[in-house]
Amino acid sequence: MAEIKIKNLVKKFHGSVTAVDSLSLTIEDGEFVSFLGPSGCGKTTTLRMLAGLEEPTSGEISLDDNVFYSSATGDYVPTEKRNMGLVFQSYALWPHMTVRDNIRFGLVQQNIPKKEQNERIDNVLKLLQIENLGKRYSFQISGGQQQRVALARMLALRPNVLLLDEPLSNLDAQLRIEMRSELKRLHKKLGNTTIFVTHDQLEAMTLSTRIAVMSQGQLQQYGSPLEIYRKPANLFVARFVGSPPINIITKDISSSLFNSALEYLENSGVGEAAGKAVYIGLRPEKARINESVNSSWMIEATVAAMLPTGPEWILQTEADNTFFFSSINRDPDFEAGDKCSVAFQREDFLLFDSNEQRIDF
Amino acid sequence: MFFHKNDQSLALWARHRYNRLRSDPTPIIALLLVAALTYLVLGPLIALVAEGFRTQFRDVARIGSEQGSLTFYYFQRVFTSRISRTIFWLPLQRTLMLAVVTLTGSILLGFVLAWILVRTDCPGSGYFSKMMILPYIIPSWTFALAWITIFKNRRIAGPMGIAETLGFSPPDWLAYGFIPIAITLMFSLFSLSFLLFASSLQTVDVQLEESARMVGTKRHVIMTRILMPMLLPALMSSGLLIVSRTIGSFGTPYLLGSPIKYTLLSTTLYGAVQRSEQGIASILTLVIVLIGMSAVAVDIFFVKEARRFVTVSGKGSFQNRQKLGVFKIPVYIFVVVIVLISIVIPILALMISTVSLRMGVFTPDNFTLDYWIGKSIPRLAGLSGILRNPDVLMSVYNSVRIVSVVALLSGCLGTFIGYVSVRYSGTRLAAYLKQLSFLPYIIPAIGFGAAYLTLFAVRRGPVPSLYGTMWLIILAMSIKYLPFAARTGTAAMMQLGKEPEEAAMICGAPWRKRFFKIVVPILKKTLVTGIILPFISGMKELVLIIFLATPGLEMMTTQVLRYIDYGYTQMANAVTVVIVFVILILTLLLQKITGSGITSGLKGS
Lengths: 361, 605
What we know:
By secondary structure, chain A is α+β, with helices and mostly antiparallel strands. In chain A, about 30% of the residues lie in helices and about 30% in strands. Chain A has a six-stranded mixed beta sheet with strand order 6-7-8-3-9-10, sandwiched between helices. Chain B is globular, with a radius of gyration of 27 Å.
């Protein structure tokens, strides 16, 4: 069992800057949870507080029945005794030790007999497919390999929880995809409770069982990847998740578009919800370009730019001084500068109220 | 109820702290560092101010107030009394004049040489550039000793100089006083401006010049409008450093000025301390400290600020060195002459003098090893050569043991300051430590030594009087070298970051193991540098310890002064030769370890 409970966790730096603002969430045993958010949102700080590297200002952190930190009782378990595995963004391999010694260091601290140490080292090296690197030093191996060593170093310790701090951000695109599936494979195989910090929404979407979206120290939404994508709790989540980004029509900036959309929604029977809306969100992939669809909201637009990615095309279209992203997966029969029609259906609409919260309809 | 609640939260707080400190004692280290450094850096300065404005015991009758009470007597005596001209205004005037002359000379010489060696096709430029570091690393008073060896005239007791033996009797103005002081200081300090100019010239982006040329700019316009503004910071920096060094210099004016009572601020201060005029000494020290500090402060706060706007991000290598053409040979000869005068001749003169019975006589029967291994030499009042002389051996022993402790202490202090600064980076504590550990850099060494003497001359509270013990010298040196140690330590720790240690923490290692098995081994190289560097500085230190090295605690450098006082020039020279060689060997060793030059510390200053 390894269930993490965070209650009302607060972290203030230098007494004033609030990095984490009364965060509460539970991570169940065996879950792969991502903390997702822009830099400075408090995700890494939260992870470091879980590891015990940062002292919370107040709140409570517990693992199963062990209270790691509680401002109410004064309980505090130091990092060394938490048995959490943390893989650093920079990997933090010790340059004066070989790969094997890097892995061995923690095992020695836990007084594991020599024979078992070697067994465990062999096992993790094999697990991560780096058996031949054991005698090398960190500066003699590539970034991707360092990443695997850092992971192996933690896995050998058989931690209660595996914490990963943007582990893929220093890898090139190719390796990143490779390591992503590697992480998923490992999680499936070992079943560790894993917390993964990232600012890359694609990583979070593809890896996690649940995602905690954070912004300015506050939890914005906590749910499964598809829930986050399809039913974003608020405008921030809607904007942060998705690439190309969601199109937002605001009441103030493009009023004619906004009103036209509102009229369509009223005619489609969601007038009440539409009445409260201040922002309208439309995902790019929902757009139908030059397709006639029954009972849809259709606007005339000009194609401003066409960006082929290979499998699909990302189009930038313009209507009422507003740029729209849309993605289509057929080759377009028009060119930049041409007129086109852009259509959305009722269920494509995401509506947000004046507090930027999503309106259910 | 209220109190009860408060008690409980206090207990809670204490429990938190205890739990935390047990796993990570860094706050304790930080606290100890802050307390110790505050006392050792700010303490002497405060003591100095206090002593300058308090009635000293010996002046109770004269001033007519109680011992320890507030007085402006010393202040008046230094600035407005009848003797103020002798003890302050005249030395000040001479010091400032000296600063101006030294400054102009060293800047010109340094710039011209840097230009020749970096930007022209003068042969052997790489080799000469390396040699230019020598004047910077050997003690500055070595040049004064060499001057004495060559130009000493009959006026003063002791053997005559080489010139006199060769039949040229140097007049007093050439043997002692302003001219020789200015010349020797200039030759010992121009390497400073050379190093700064050379590194600026190397790093100025060639593309800036090339783009100017692309748009058709004339050569002299490029020089004045593009290059000069870029070099201005180097000019200002080296200028202010040279002024600060000149004002704080002691060895050279002592050796070349004292025999004819040509006193500067520093030597006046020395006199005051020798006569136990504590109050006057304090005021004089304050003046020296203030002038020196303001020079360096101007450099740091104005020049460094200005430098930020200068793009110094060039590739460094100069493909298009200026062709000298017909001037190649004359320029080459000029460089050779400078190298001869500034490096080869002084060191050679010193070395030859130690194996000559009479200086300047180059015949086989004049050769002697007496000054090195002789036993009870009659013409030296029965002294033995330096390799078997108890006084010298004692000074070697003192130097080695004191400087070893200083090196270790500096290394440790630097490491811990770096460690704490990184762990607390961004906090006020780290900023305070940084400023505190930088302060000794801007205080001239002579003022620093005098201030230490003031602070530790008597018991203050629980701190015993350390006067007459090696610990006073050790503390003064360690704190004076702290800026370099702290910078080395902080830079290394910053580069390391806190993650390697945190990774060890995650692995379950307690603090002791994290520090000694992870942090220290990774920083091994830096730590060795941080130990050798203060060792080198300590071996050649004179100014700082001049007030602190009491009889029985003579170090090699002060032993040199003693021999000069007695007129045993060759003995002094022999000890100096040993010092210079020790420094050279250690510097080479250091370069081997770090792979970089000793000047790296200078550039960042």
